[in-house]
Specification:
97 residues
Length: 97
């Protein structure tokens, strides 16, 4: 993939991380609970996880954060050496992970 395409995908992942983290923090702190201690009770957590949209949001957060982390790892490894072969090997190993 071209670097510009990876950069755009990375920006999309960052946006998804911020959006889903904001929703996560809002539901943990303000929506449907009286205080933070109530938000952490087992019954409260089960109620939230019964909602399909909530599970989907957490899945999006997990996938976006994983992609963003692997792309960051790729960029760090690319800075170690700059030969074309090294760039190809790092890209083939890190991105499909």
């Amino acid at each position: 993939m071209r670097e510009s395409t990876l950069r755009i995908l990375n920006y999309g992942a960052i946006f998804l991380i911020f959006a889903t983290l904001a929703a996560h923090f809002l539901t943990q702190s303000f929506v449907g609970v009286r205080n933070h201690a109530e938000a952490l009770t087992y019954a409260s957590i089960l109620v939230r996880y019964d909602v399909v949209a909530w599970r989907a949001a957490l899945a999006v957060l997990l996938v976006a954060a994983t992609f963003h982390g692997l792309l960051g790892l790729r960029n760090m490894l690319m800075e170690l050496r700059s030969t074309p072969r090294w760039r190809q090997v790092v890209t083939v190993i890190v991105l499909p992970s």
